[in-house]
Amino acid sequence: MTTDAIEREFKQKVCEELRLAEEGKDRFRIFTPFRFDDGDHLAIVLKREKNQWLLSDEGHTYMHLTYRFNESDLESGTRKEIIENSLSEFQVENRYGEFIVKIEQGEYGDALYRFAQALLRISDVSYLSRERVKSTFYEDFRTLIAENVPEDRYVFEWHDTQHDPEGFYKVDCHINNMATPLCIYALPNDNQVRDATISLFQFEKWENSFYPIAIFQDADKVSKKVLKKFSKVCDKQFPSLQENRLEIANYLREVLSL
């Protein structure tokens, strides 16, 4: 099939606002009107590899997501599920971060349509609903702990079985085998900060010996009044899980090595 014929089929099956630009031998850049949420266009290349024509994003989509998320966040939990489901639904292959579709039986238009749909669906990772964002925050929190703390030294959803057998005052993560255990709270909103404040005041009444730590989804979005009360019972705070990820990891490793 000639280049002009391929371009005509692309326009017929995908959209008229599309053009093909030659970039070298057996390599063409496909310009479409499709964009990511920040305005960047999808990166799509038609190229020939070992007598096989294929469409590729050459790793651009995955790289684009890493501007907003850590790679580990894309390789676990809800975000990983969205990416894998999108690839499976539109029959796209993940070749070590490069997404590709092989052109079978000259079906150029159908392949491009599937490929563009898959890339747009994957970009929806950035549009998670509020509840799913909350879900990924806790997933990211747990992943961070698991990556930096030995498995036998932490417990998620911990509570004081002696004073609180029913678990009314839970701690998101309790790190043990230390002279002073760590109680780490993952805090996505005002309500969770209030609950943590109440729990910490209650622990003081029980004279529990521990060191509290707070990791916020975004401390700037927490009410100043709520944050002020919480700061009276928790000195060590990280304003953002995403932005302070490396700092948190280094802190945990340092404390655990003491």
Entry keywords:
single chain, 258 residues, alpha+beta, Trna Endonuclease, Chain: A, domain 1, 2 domains, 6-stranded antiparallel sheet, 5-stranded mixed sheet, 9 helices
Low-confidence stretches: none
The CATH topology annotation of the largest domain reads as Trna Endonuclease, Chain: A, domain 1
Structural class of the secondary elements? Answer: alpha+beta
Named CATH architecture of the largest domain: 3-Layer(aba) Sandwich
Indicate the CATH class of the largest domain: Alpha Beta
Distance between the termini: 68 Å
With helices defined by DSSP (H or I, 4 residues minimum), what is the helix count? 9
**How helix-rich are the residues, as a percent range?**
40-55%
Q: Which strands sit side by side, in order, in the main sheet?
A: 1-2-3-4-6-5
Number of domains: 2
The strand count comes to 11
Indicate the mean pLDDT: 89
In angstroms, what is the radius of gyration?
24 Å
Overall shape: it is elongated
The arrangement of helices and strands along the chain is HEEEEHHHEEHHEEEHEHEH
Please give the largest β-sheet: 6 strands, antiparallel
- Binned strand content: 15-25%
Topology summary:
Blueprint lengths: L2 H11 L5 E6 L2 E5 L12 E6 L2 E5 L3 H7 L4 H4 L2 H13 L3 E3 L2 E5 L5 H16 L6 H19 L5 E5 L12 E5 L6 E6 L2 H16 L5 E6 L7 H8 L4 E3 L6 H13 L1
Parallel strand pairs: 9-10, 10-11
Antiparallel strand pairs: 1-2, 2-3, 3-4, 4-6, 5-6, 7-8, 8-9
Structure description:
It contains nine helices and eleven strands. With 258 residues, the protein is an alpha+beta fold. The chain has two domains: 3-127; 130-257, 3-Layer(aba) Sandwich (Trna Endonuclease, Chain: A, domain 1). Helix 4 packs antiparallel against helix 5 (108-123) and helix 6 (130-148) runs parallel beside helix 9. The longest helix is centred in the middle third of the chain and has 19 residues, at 130-148.
